[in-house]
Design a protein that fits this description.
By secondary structure, this protein is mainly beta. The protein is built from three helices and 27 strands. The longest helix is centred in the N-terminal third of the chain and has 4 residues.
Length: 290
């Protein structure tokens, strides 16, 4: 899928699998027809342009009506996918981070949005009021990724302090910041994801590895090796039977194991379609592949 003029940093499927959103260093968000690969320009007029700097993350709400985007400009925008057809503008701006925002994700019920930032914090936002509901502090450096468990009972975060941390969002929303567990890599952690069952946490990083953890006790379950450069992203298929990892070695790996080749530069982001039949990847070669 061609259209971005800079590296693609994030991709996400809508809950019904009809749309694919992509975020780029070119400061834009683009929407694509997931079936045909055509850009949804006839539907939305043009790329979604509001951020001033690189867009690092896109996420659909569980009902598919809202898209969240995060950026190096320290902003999070919420886009109503109906109203932006005509306006081309976001319906809300979430401000408060003191550094670039690197990741964002909705809770399973759509009530909360978690954001991770280079300022070392995670913020939990109430989507309805668009106000901060809680702040998670504990990482010793920038937080690069965050993920809700499927039941919404835990938030996992990954940071450049070499750790993955698990948090209880309910306690955070009560004004406290209680860390449940801390898991370690040998170098900066770049990404984190819960399996659909919630029984496994996958993380990866600059140590070229993918690691699997038990979120109940923090025990290390498996070390997946094979990439020959930094691993940028991990994603479970909706069934949980496959784990995909994307790397600066220009490959996407499926465990157990298959390697997908085709990109001509580091691969930054991955997303499975809801039916598990498609895997989208975004790359520094400025393309999205499905």
């Amino acid at each position: 899928l061609f259209g971005h003029t800079g590296q693609v940093l994030s991709v996400a499927f809508s809950p019904n699998g009809a749309l694919l959103a992509s975020a780029s260093v070119d400061s834009t968000v683009r929407l694509w027809d997931a079936a045909t690969g055509e850009e949804k320009g006839e539907l939305f007029g043009h790329a979604l342009v509001a951020h001033k700097f690189a867009v690092t993350s896109v996420a659909f709400s569980p009902d598919g009506k809202t898209l969240a985007s995060a950026s190096h400009d320290k902003m999070i925008f919420l886009w109503d996918l109906e109203s932006c057809r005509e306006s081309g503008q976001p319906v809300a701006e979430l401000t408060g981070h003191m550094d670039k925002v690197l990741s964002t994700q909705f809770s399973p019920d759509g009530a909360l949005l978690v954001s991770a930032s280079g300022d070392g914090s995670l913020r939990l936002w109430d989507v309805a009021s668009r106000k901060v509901h809680g702040v998670l502090l504990g990482h010793a450096s920038g937080v690069v990724a965050a993920s809700f468990s499927r039941d919404g009972a835990l938030v996992a975060s990954a940071a450049s302090d070499n750790t993955v941390r698990l948090w209880d969002p309910k306690i955070a929303c009560e004004g406290k910041s209680v860390e449940e567990a801390s898991l370690s890599h040998m170098d900066c952690v770049t990404c984190v994801a819960f399996s659909p069952s919630g029984h496994t946490v996958a993380s990866a990083g600059q140590d070229w590895t993918v690691r699997l953890w038990d979120p109940t006790d923090g025990n290390h379950r498996a070390l997946l090796q094979g990439h020959t450069d930094v691993v940028r992203c991990v994603a479970f298929s909706p069934t949980g039977h496959l784990l995909a990892s994307a790397s600066s070695d220009w490959t996407v790996r499926l465990w157990d194991p298959h390697t997908l080749r085709g990109h001509a530069a580091p691969v930054h982001s991955l997303a499975f379609s809801p039916n598990s039949r498609s895997l989208a990847s975004g790359s520094a070669d400025k393309t999205v592949r499905v």
